[in-house]
Amino acid sequence: MTTELKDVIIIGAGPIGIACALECKKRGWNYTVIEKGALTNSLFNYPLNMTFFSTSDKLEIDNIPFISNNPKPTRSEALEYYRRVTTSNQLHINLFEEVRSFEKTADGFIVISDKNSYQTKKVIIATGFYDIPNLLNIPGEHLPKVLHYYKEAHPYTLQNVAIVGASNSSVDAALEIYRKGGHVTMIIRNDAIGERVKYWVRPDIINRIEEGSIKAYFNSEIKEIKANEIRVKTPNETITLPNDFVIALTGYRPNFKFLAKAGIEFSSDGKQIPVYNENTMESNVEGIYLAGVICGGLETHKWFIENSRIHAKTIATHIEERLS
């Protein structure tokens, strides 16, 4: 394995990683983006029919226009946009390559992947948070019928489906599966549908629950999953429901082990927010920068494409000062 010399290594080829690559290209730096999955891997794994909460202009990077057929763009439109940005700008991105380790050196870092070795002056970590689901940690969660990601409704037609959660993803899945002929039950820890649910969807799910088309158990949680049923603890009693699938959309978290391996420290308040300088986005490890939603730790609702796309320019400006 030969070692490639780089000015900057960017880990993660989501929208923010792509934005960072554009900033590197503008400055003529020798950079490479390393992505363990497909281009914009998190967006690729979103539900097929997902519609964004934001308008297309707020998802644009580097002032490159994002034209959508509707005010709220779809997953397929977003994939096309970021694909076009990448290919038309001939960005240097290695897909399906996973970073395994870091080693700090006098001149920067040695970054080892499963395919290559890199000597680089600076590292930007923009790995998102969609790869690691928050588990229920209950008996039966290992069964094949339990999923932590939702793609499309068709497989759940005529099936008894329990959806755990009341976020945007949970509500979208419940409505789609119900409309494709599935028998949907929502298990919700709180006493209402989440306030952050898309404003044009929230009335729909509330009406479906009120009319009885979708059954919802509030202030409740699944205690055990079996092959053909689930046990649910409600405010009044523990009940048993027939069940074919459990879709636990209970959120996701950044890869904290990966960040810790790079030497990055975290807040001590339980939120596991990585330590970084808000003015430069440089972490507590000199030369390693953080970009995008990973900056929020467990507060995964804090950073989005819309408000973290500025991280790319902030980081590049600071690196430029250091490299000059």
Could you characterize the architecture of this molecule?
The chain has 324 residues and is of the alpha/beta class. It folds into two domains: 3-132 and 252-323, FAD/NAD(P)-binding domain, CATH 3.50.50.60; 135-248, FAD/NAD(P)-binding domain (3-Layer(bba) Sandwich). The protein is built from eight helices and 17 strands. The strands form four sheets. Strands 1, 2, 3, 4, 5, 6 and 17 form a seven-stranded mixed beta sheet that branches. The chain has a five-stranded parallel beta sheet with strand order 8-15-9-10-11, with helices on one face. A three-stranded antiparallel beta sheet has the order 12-13-14, with no helix packed on it. Strand 12 (221-225) and strand 13 (229-233) form a beta hairpin. Helix 1 packs parallel to helix 8. The relative contact order is 0.16.
Topology overview:
Layout: E1 3-11, H1 15-26, E2 31-34, H2 41-44, H3 75-88, E3 93-94, E4 99-105, E5 108-113, E6 117-125, E7 132-133, E8 146-147, E9 160-164, H4 168-179, E10 183-187, H5 202-211, E11 215-217, E12 221-225, E13 229-233, E14 238-242, E15 245-248, E16 252-253, H6 256-261, E17 288-290, H7 305-308, H8 310-323
Helix pairs in contact: 1-8
Taking Cα atoms only, what radius of gyration do you get, to the nearest Å? 22 Å
Task: Tell me what portion of residues adopts beta-strand conformation.
Answer: 15-25%
Helical amount among residues, as a percent range? 10-25%
Biggest sheet record = 7 strands, mixed
Categorize the overall geometry: elongated
Please tally the β strands and state the result. Answer: 17
Q: Uncertain segments of ≥5 residues (pLDDT<50)?
A: none
Helix and strand string, N-terminal first? Answer: EHEHHEEEEEEEHEHEEEEEEHEHH
Count of DSSP H/I helices:
8
**Total domains, how many?**
2
